[in-house]
Amino acid sequence: MSANPIPPLHLYSVPSDPEAAASRELPKRERPRTAWTADQLMAADFPEPKWAVPGILAEGVNLLAGPPKVGKSWLSLGLALAVAAGGHAFDTLSVDGGPVLYLALEDTPRRLQTRMRKILGGQPAPAGLTLVTECPPFPQGGSDAIANWLERNPDARMVVIDVFAKMRGPAPQGVSAYDADYVAVGYAKRIADHYGIAVVLVHHVRKAGSDDFLTEVSGTNGIAGAADATLVLKRARGQADGILHVTGRDVDEAEYALQFQAASGAWQMLDGPVTDHTIGDTRAAILRHVRNNPGVRPRDVVAALPDIDADTVRRYCSRMAEAGQLTKDAAGRYYPDTPPPEVSQVSDCPITATDLHEQTGHPQTPGVRLSDSNDGRSAR
Description:
The structure is a single chain. The chain is of the alpha/beta class and 380 residues long. The protein has helices at 18-23, 38-43, 72-85, 109-120, 142-152, 177-195, 221-226, 281-292, 298-304, 310-322, 353-358, 370-379; strands at residues 51-53, 57-58, 60-66, 88-89, 93-94, 100-104, 129-132, 158-162, 198-204, 229-235, 242-248, 254-261, 266-269, 327-328, 334-335. Helix 3 (72-85) packs across helix 4 (109-120), helix 5 (142-152) runs parallel beside helix 6 and helix 9 crosses helix 10 (310-322). It is globular, with a radius of gyration of 26 Å.
């Protein structure tokens, strides 16, 4: 028998007075400390953030955005199943199990059943996942409904709201669009901070693309600004079906190449750097060889990759250098997308730290060792 309480037929009861419901506070808990002297703060011992998905989804508000039909709902449902069961997110990352609330506000029960049947692939469905297809907006009873579920499930690890637009409610009167967006996300943040869980808001991106994925989030900067982390799922070319861009206050900025398995409805994380999976097979092969053998010339690549003719290798190496996927030194050697080492004008070989150490006649540091110059810089 499951230890999780059996959910009611509805997550909420329609409040008789919506204005009173909007003004109600969350259930009382011990108020966390909010002021310290500097020495007290430095001496304090704080627990590490709780992760729903290690390295990707931490406690707090996580905004998951992407264009329509890119697979956000498949991804969020797959993560909810993995966390509720204590399995593997993206078929790769081990997660601790715990109750999950999934608000699928654009789906029907039949559609959810069909998707879960495909994702589970015959495995039993986790009793710790509560699925809801209807909930009022945050200011009209939605916050209370979610809080009541979290009170009944004190070990909950995640709440997924798909989609955020269904829960944000009407904008307050007389405020700017930025402030309205900030307030809307603020409802979710209060819940996340109060209960110490990850809240995932599924959202959309603008039609116009951008080099900065944060600017693609639909709405004003108030949405991404109020969230603790932003994840943007974008379509990709090459072997990957999507790139998950992640940044936030408690997560390191990173990119992950993902592949969608249509047969199982699951998003899988691909091994290696994103660039290995977002370029064509020929470029990927060249990039892998250069990464494993920095400083090679095109003829070396040709010898290592006999299936690619010499002209193609030379042409692709040149184009990849122009695109910033490779770098090329003055001697014609290729390196991964990091600056190549300086080449000696005498021997045509890369200059090492030892070489620099012996160059006592260097015009900028005459007769000074590297260790001395470092000491001098640190003393300034």
